[in-house]
Specification:
The chain crosses the membrane at residues 239-258. By secondary structure, the protein is an alpha/beta fold. It has helices spanning 2-20, 25-35, 90-93, 163-166, 237-248, 275-278, 285-288, 313-318, 356-367, 399-403, 418-438; strands spanning 37-38, 67-70, 73-78, 85-86, 101-103, 110-111, 124-126, 131-135, 149-151, 156-159, 173-175, 180-183, 195-197, 202-206, 224-226, 253-254, 302-303, 321-327, 330-335, 343-348, 379-382, 387-392, 454-455. It is 22% helix and 19% strand.
């Protein structure tokens, strides 16, 4: 009897010990995760003493709000519409090996995208209707091969759509609407989408052919998108014209040669019968008579660069001017400003097919180009009847003058030797490469490439 009594008490002791240590590791992880959240009163019924996936009908639904179980293991966390904020502690959640679904929709989280790629086996991610912001790294979804659903709509994300998102093999639901994503849409792996929405962003360019069968509403609100299922992409002809104009003011390839070639320009590119007029200084009457004293709001100089002195249209019109030459896009003049270095003013021939917003946008793109072998415009003037482009004046003339003997030479100066010509060629090549990289959507961003458009 004594031995049976001892055995009974031993069994009772083991049962009591197991009861005392009933808190599961998953419960401890979730309680730690809860502490990282602000305004978490909606989770007050998270109780570490209660089994997360209990089959007990008396506790089911009363504890652990927002958790779902599958086959007796934690499957998903869906904490939505709870006004939660703070930090989503991904490092802590990564310890939940069975977690497959994560949702925090319609809360008040802000800041950058959480590092969800640490949750490799995740199948569904719901972060919509929060205040997340900033760019998402290109590898944010790397190796998440089981991810089927990504909901990031109505946040403040910006930058490009991450490439790792487009290559997910299992993805069938994607919603990025109502953010500030920009750039081109990446090439998604072809699949049968259950949900696809990129509307109301700042995306541009041609829609990839693999998405041509998606409903057009999925791309609405992106004013610079084109191609099926939207309207056809516009011909780059207009941009070709504008690109040619930029060559006229030496946007293409301005080569900075050593100080020996920094001499004043002495010879005009006009025909011989215009040579005398080209050397005469005058006011910029070529435009002044055509511009009334009171003009519309956008009839003023629009500066695209801020690294040089600002001047107004009236000062430009009063400046002494010298005719430099003429080309297929208009005539050029050198203007001597009273409060700054001289500038080149190019009066463009009529381009009725180009509106103010389109012209302004393109000039802004050119103004942002920064490269030692390219000369972007300083400012421009736009009216329906007349358009002016203003750029810096380069006093060493152009390559054509030096090659064909029109440039002034000092005694002992033998012109362009072969090492110098090689440096010029390299500079032109670098300028062209950078121009194609900055303006990839244009068929011919440099316009007319000829020696008279290469300034020294």
């Amino acid at each position: 009897m004594a031995r049976k009594a001892d055995l009974f008490f031993l069994i009772l002791f083991v049962v009591c010990c197991n009861t005392c240590s009933s808190t599961s590791p998953e419960a401890e992880i979730l309680i730690k995760f809860k502490s990282s959240l602000s305004n978490n009163t909606a989770l007050d019924n998270w109780d570490a003493s209660i089994d997360i996936c209990s089959d007990d009908a008396s506790t089911r639904g009363k504890y652990w709000t927002g958790l779902t179980c599958k086959n007796g293991a934690l499957f998903g966390i869906r904490l939505e519409n709870m006004s939660l904020s703070g930090v989503i502690d991904i490092d802590t959640l990564a310890n939940l090996s069975s977690l497959r679904s994560l949702g925090f929709m319609n809360n008040s989280f802000h800041g950058p995208m959480p590092p969800v790629k640490k949750l490799g086996p995740l199948k569904a991610l719901y972060l919509a209707y929060n205040k997340f912001s900033g760019a998402i790294s290109d590898d944010a979804f790397q190796n998440m091969r089981s991810l089927k659903t990504v909901r990031l709509e109505e946040n403040e994300f910006k930058g490009r759509i991450p490439g790792s998102l487009s290559s997910l093999p299992a993805l069938v639901e994607l919603s990025l609407e109502g953010n500030k994503f920009e750039g081109q849409i990446p090439d998604f792996i072809p699949r049968d989408w259950l949900l696809f929405d990129l509307s109301n962003n700042q995306l541009e360019g041609s829609i990839p052919s693999g998405l041509a069968n998606i409903d057009s509403n999925a791309f609405a609100g992106n004013k610079d998108l084109c191609g099926q299922p939207l309207s056809r992409c516009k011909s780059p002809k207009k941009w070709y014209i504008l690109a040619g104009v930029t060559v006229g003011i030496a946007v293409l390839a301005i080569i900075v040669i050593y100080h020996r070639y920094r001499r004043r320009r002495a010879l005009s590119l006009l025909a011989e019968e215009q040579a005398e007029d080209s050397k005469a200084h005058d006011k910029l009457g070529f435009v002044k008579a055509q511009y009334p004293e009171k003009t519309e709001e956008n009839a003023k100089l629009q500066f695209v660069r801020t690294d040089r002195p600002i001047f107004d249209l009236e000062e430009l019109l009063k400046a002494p001017a010298e005719v430099l030459g003429g080309g297929s896009f208009g005539s050029s003049y050198k203007a001597l400003l009273s409060n700054g270095p001289p500038v080149v003013v190019k009066r463009l021939r009529p381009m009725k097919c180009v509106g103010f917003e389109e012209f302004h946008e393109h000039m802004g793109r050119l103004g942002r180009i920064s490269h030692p072998n390219l000369l972007p415009p300083v400012a421009f003037y736009y009216r329906n009847e007349d358009k002016l482009l203003i750029s810096e004046f380069m006093g060493n003339g152009n390559l054509a003058d030096h090659l064909h003997g029109h440039a002034q030479r000092t005694p002992g100066n033998i012109g362009l030797d072969w090492p110098t010509r090689l440096r010029i060629i390299k500079g032109v090549a670098r300028g062209l490469a950078h121009l194609h990289m900055e303006l990839p959507g244009q068929a011919l961003p440099h316009g007319h490439l000829k020696s008279s458009n290469v300034l020294l």
